[in-house]
Amino acid sequence: MSSALYGGAAGRRVTVRDIQAAKPGGEKWPMVTAYDAMTARVFDDAGIPVMLVGDSAAMVVYGYDSTLPVTVDDLIPLTAAVVRGSSRALVVADLPFGSYQASPAQALETAARFMKEAGAHAVKLEGGHRVLPQVEALVSAGIPVMGHLGLTPQSVNAFGGYRVQGRGQSGDELMADAKALEHAGAFSLVLECVPTDLADRVTAALSIPTIGIGAGPGTDAQVLVWQDLMGLTERPAKFVKKYFDLHGEMDRAVRAFADEVSSGAFPAKEHSYS
Ligand code: KIV
What we know:
The protein has helices at 16-25, 37-45, 57-60, 72-85, 104-118, 132-140, 156-159, 170-184, 196-205, 226-229, 246-263; strands at 29-33, 50-53, 90-94, 122-124, 145-150, 188-192, 210-213, 221-224. The model has no long low-confidence stretch (mean pLDDT 96). Helix content is 41%, strand content 13%. Strands 1-2-3-4-5-6-7-8 form an 8-stranded parallel β-barrel, surrounded by 6 helices. By secondary structure, it is of the alpha/beta class. The longest helix is centred in the last third of the chain and has 18 residues, at 246-263. Bound molecules: 3-methyl-2-oxobutanoic acid. 3-methyl-2-oxobutanoic acid binds next to strand 6. Residues 33, 52, 54-56, 94, 190, 192, 213, 223, 225 line the site of 3-methyl-2-oxobutanoic acid (KIV).
């Protein structure tokens, strides 16, 4: 059996050590978001090694227009479902806005809830220098931490919109934040909406894997929100590639069902009990 992260041997969960070990060999691997057990099962069976229960659930599950309103209580049941629906993938829980910024103690309390109540294997939080004490506290408590730099959606109001980050001099700050997160013990780092050359330089400078989303082809891994890659999202960002037309397929299927109900063609004899 292959020891590759993507599609490698099943039988046990992928660990953060497996993820870090893949970097020197140059394996590029996929991460997707997941928010429920059945979808998680599909991705797990396909060999996806890491699933993120993103705070993007705020939009794609709960219908908010940003990630800000979603709470720990909203995300814990989704995380638990993804853990139950998978047997191989490492499941990373996103710490939502307001659940870790106040202090390392708050971060620890929140992360511990995701580990104890949902069975998450790691957590993700957004930011650089301002969250280093939080990262250190979590890592020293034995909780693997994934960092997230660039367009960190929880700071959308400070950024004044969803725009590319790290151009010009702010690229140096992002590089410094990336190195500081690695030094604080983060096991991997999401880079969202940053110029390709900056993502390449950060990837080369770090010994932990980088996971790109709108960061070009040079990062160690790539992540997409599953509703984006499956074509369910109506107006996806430029960095999204649509691999399926789920919106169109669902529209066709539900209309076919509705038409058959109207005409009386459904249910037929084979769908009925005698
Ligand atoms: O919440 C999320 O889905 C994310 C990914 C887009 C990285 O943070």
